Amino acid sequence: MLRASFTQLARRSYASASKSLTIGLIPGDGIGKEVIPAGRQVLENLSSKHGLKFDFIDLQAGWQTFQETGKALPDETIDILRNQCQGALFGAVQSPTNKVEGYSSPIVALRKKLGLYANVRPVKSVLPQERPVDMIIVRENTEDLYIKTEKTYIDEKTGTRVAEAIKRISETATKNIANIALEIALQRQKVNGEATLTVTHKSNVLSQSDGLFREVCRQVYESNKDKFGSIKYNEQIVDSMVYRMFREPECFDVIVAPNLYGDILSDGAAALVGSLGVVPSANVGFDFVVGEPCHGSAPDIAGKGISNPVATIRSTALMLEFMGHPEAAQDIHKAVDANLRDNSIKTPDLGGKSTTQQVVEDVLSRM
């Protein structure tokens, strides 16, 4: 995991690394309501050691919010994040699988409204018996099929319904995601001595959309050879990428992908390290960052107090790294890794019997 070196990627607005920070807390649905408080407890624990002062604002978004208010992402939530907060933690969303008039995913909308163009997902094995995995999946966060431009109509010839969705890949968004992926690779090279960027696509079928993504990524690399030339550059078709990721995860370092492929790859990669409950992410923009665990709302265990808080705690650390506080973030990472190595306090998804709060308290004690 790149960890402290992430901070060097922060834009100028992060560079001040303010000691007084206001964090928006958006639990969302399901287990999001159980794990976001874990992130808050960890941040409160950091205050005395690192001289940080945290204020928190509880905010609403999600399916339950939609049912209560008619809006999955209230305007007030966006206004407060923009005008009062320096960062945020987002829990999970319980989106319906069937079409509901007026509803769309609030996390997708949040990423667009705040310009969070990159979703950075580190996946790293910790235990000695685990397969050697140490990759970062950098997912374009604002377009592809997630622009949600769809329509359903009746085919005149057959009289049956047809559904269509637009896949959008732009040169601007692709340049942004290629640049941050290469910057991450460059920082990993400084830590590990070498780095590889793998561009994932399906341009053999989608020659224009994925073709543009592939072309622009290569252009960004080639036009900045003086900076990135020491990074190994690879390309991989997405279906063979999935196969190789499970067969040879040690072959991959930094992976950059369009929105949909990045989503699928990062969720799949979580299986290599035991559970979605341990994989963090950061939604990164030019002047804002939102930490977000990679797991969903898990309605089957919501309310039971057994959800794994590790992904949220790690996402809290990633948020701090992008906000310019690597030392505080490193304390969190070390405590979580120690908890996982100890292997005695763990939630059921990892084969244990501990509660959410027991894991949180164990991590806090190690900090």
- Overall pLDDT level: 92
Query: CATH superfamily name of the largest domain?
Result: Isopropylmalate Dehydrogenase
Spatial strand arrangement across the major sheet: 2-1-3-12-11-4-5-10-8-9
- Count the DSSP helices: 13
Pick out the low-confidence regions. Answer: 1-7
The CATH topology of the largest domain turns out to be: Isopropylmalate Dehydrogenase
Provide a short characterization of the protein structure.
The chain is α/β, with parallel strands linked by helices and 367 residues long. It has helices spanning 12-15, 32-50, 63-69, 75-84, 106-113, 171-192, 209-222, 225-228, 238-247, 259-269, 310-322, 326-342, 356-366; strands at 20-28, 53-58, 87-92, 118-124, 134-140, 150-154, 161-165, 196-201, 232-237, 254-257, 282-284, 289-291.
